[in-house]
Amino acid sequence: MLTLPTDIDVLARFGRALADPIRCRLLLALREAPAHPADLADRLGISRTRLSNHLACLRDCGLVVAVPVGRRVRYELADAGLGHALDDLRTAVVAVETDRTCVDADEEGCC
Fold this sequence. Notes:
Blueprint: H1 7-18, H2 21-32, H3 37-44, H4 48-60, E1 64-69, E2 72-77, H5 80-93
Antiparallel strand pairs: 1-2
């Protein structure tokens, strides 16, 4: 029997994806338009191997999908609503005080 993810599962996946700056940059790039891995690697200035690992994480989190286009694969956001969610998060972040640092959960004083 297939169980549907809970709201907490969905938010945790989204949080995991956003926890890395490269994945954030990838999501923002794909928010603008679907792209092929080679183009994304060039745009972000990272190796294709490193990009592949981050794309795999985003696929596993359910945030991006790979779409076959002939012999190539193009990546895009799994749902158009994700682009809107990213915009909403970017808007919300500007309310954070810039003199504060968000530390890891293992450290005392985590935000």
